[in-house]
TrEMBL record:
GO cellular component, one term: cytosol
Signal peptide bounds: none
Gene Ontology molecular function terms on file: ferrous iron binding
Taxonomic path: Bacteria, Pseudomonadati, Pseudomonadota, Betaproteobacteria, Neisseriales
Domain of life: Bacteria
Record-linked SUPFAM superfamilies: IscX-like (SSF140319)
Pfam families the UniProt entry points to: Fe-S_assembly
GO BP terms in the entry: iron-sulfur cluster assembly
Stored Gene3D superfamilies: IscX-like (1.10.10.600)
Record's protein name: FeS assembly protein IscX
Length: 65
């Protein structure tokens, strides 16, 4: 899974942390760390930026609602 797989990342984060974490309250550094800890995630951390993290956060919020 790569940084550009925002919807899949959001779905996996929701499946793993949906009951415990509110994505609206996460800092981007925390979100990045959660993404990089996903079992199937294998992209370069240097390729991550604020725009990608915003997209993942919004997709996770949408997934939770």
């Amino acid at each position: 899974m790569k940084w550009t797989d925002t919807q899949r990342i959001a779905e996996d984060l929701y499946d793993l942390h949906g009951e415990d974490i509110d994505p609206k309250n996460l800092r981007f550094t925390q979100l990045r760390d959660l993404i990089m800890a996903l079992p199937e995630f294998d992209d370069d951390p240097a390729r991550c930026g604020e725009r990608i993290l915003e997209a993942v956060q919004q997709a996770w919020i949408n997934e939770a609602s």
